[in-house]
Write a structure and sequence with these properties.
Chain A is of the alpha+beta class and 86 residues long. Helix content of chain A is 38%, strand content 26%. Chain A has a domain of 57 residues: Signal recognition particle alu RNA binding heterodimer, srp9/1 (2-Layer Sandwich). Chain A has two helices and four strands; from the N terminus they run E-H-E-E-E-H. In chain A, strand 3 and strand 4 form a beta hairpin. In chain A, helix 1 runs parallel beside helix 2. Chain A starts with a strand and ends in a 12-residue tail after the last helix. In chain A, 28% of the residues are buried. Chain B has two helices and four strands. Chain B has a four-stranded mixed beta sheet with strand order 1-4-3-2. In chain B, helix 1 runs parallel beside helix 2. The longest helix of chain B has 18 residues. Chain B is elongated. Classes of the chains: A alpha+beta (86), B alpha+beta (110). The interface between A and B is large, with 36 and 39 residues. Chain B: Keywords: Cytoplasm, Phosphoprotein, Ribonucleoprotein, RNA-binding, Signal recognition particle. Chain B: GO terms for molecular function: 7S RNA binding; endoplasmic reticulum signal peptide binding.
C-alpha cells in the first residue's frame, strides 16, 4: 500500500490504476485544517496509493487531479457517433 | 446520508469546511457511478438494469454529518469549476514554501 513521496509518481500511478478498472476505483481526500495537512488516497480495494502533504503548492495539483478523474468518470468510454440527449 | 443537488452540495460543503477550521477533518470521496438504485441481485436474476456510464458520486463528511451528490456529464463542467474554487479557497491552512518568509500568515482561527 505505497505511500508516495513525489507527486509525479503518485499522479501517474493513480491514473493508471483508475484506467484498469474505473468502476472499482475510488478517490478519497482528507483535509485537516487544524493540523494543516492534506492526504489523498486512490484505491480499488486491492491496491491503495497514498500521498500526504502539508504544502500549499500541492493543493492545486491535488485539486487538478481530482478534477481530471471526475471528468474521466463522467465521460462515456465508447465514443459512439450520436450523442444522446434525454 | 443526504443526497443533494449539485448546488446545495457545494453550499453544504462550504459549511463543512468552515465548521472544521478549528478541529476535525473533512473527507471527500469520489467514485464512478452507474446509476443503480437497487442492490445487485443475488441469484443471477436477469439484470433488468442498464448501467449508465456518465455519472460520478461525490460524498463529503466531517465525521458526523454526511452529504453526497451525483454529477453527470452535463453538469460536470460547471460543477468542477465551482468545486475547484471551493477547494482552493478552503484548503489554505497548509505551509507556503517561500523561503523569504515575507509576512507569516498565522492560521486565523476566525
Amino acid at each position: 500500500m505505497p505511500h508516495y513521496h513525489t507527486w509525479e509518481e503518485f499522479a501517474r500511478a493513480a491514473e493508471k490504476l483508475y484506467l484498469t478498472d474505473p468502476m472499482k476505483v475510488r478517490v478519497v481526500l482528507k483535509y485537516r485544517h487544524c493540523d494543516g495537512n492534506l492526504c489523498i488516497k486512490v484505491t480499488d480495494n486491492a491496491v491503495c496509493l497514498q500521498y500526504k502533504t502539508d504544502q500549499a503548492q500541492d493543493v492545486k495539483k491535488i485539486e487538478k487531479l481530482h478534477g481530471k478523474l471526475m471528468r474521466l468518470m463522467v465521460s462515456k468510454e465508447t465514443h459512439s457517433g450520436s450523442m444522446e440527449t434525454d | 446520508m443526504v443526497l443533494l443537488e449539485n448546488d446545495s452540495f457545494l453550499t453544504e460543503l462550504t459549511r463543512l469546511f468552515q465548521k472544521c477550521r478549528t478541529s476535525g477533518s473533512v473527507v471527500i470521496t469520489l467514485k464512478k457511478y452507474d446509476g443503480r438504485t437497487k442492490p445487485a441481485p443475488r441469484k443471477g436474476h436477469t439484470e433488468s438494469f442498464e448501467p449508465a456510464d456518465n455519472k460520478c458520486l461525490i460524498r463529503a463528511s466531517e465525521g458526523k454529518k454526511k452529504i453526497s451528490t451525483v454529477v453527470s456529464t452535463k453538469e460536470v463542467i460547471k460543477f468542477q469549476m465551482a468545486y475547484s474554487n471551493l477547494l482552493r479557497a478552503h484548503m489554505d491552512g497548509l505551509k507556503k514554501k517561500d523561503k523569504k518568509s515575507k509576512s507569516k500568515k498565522t492560521k486565523a482561527t476566525q
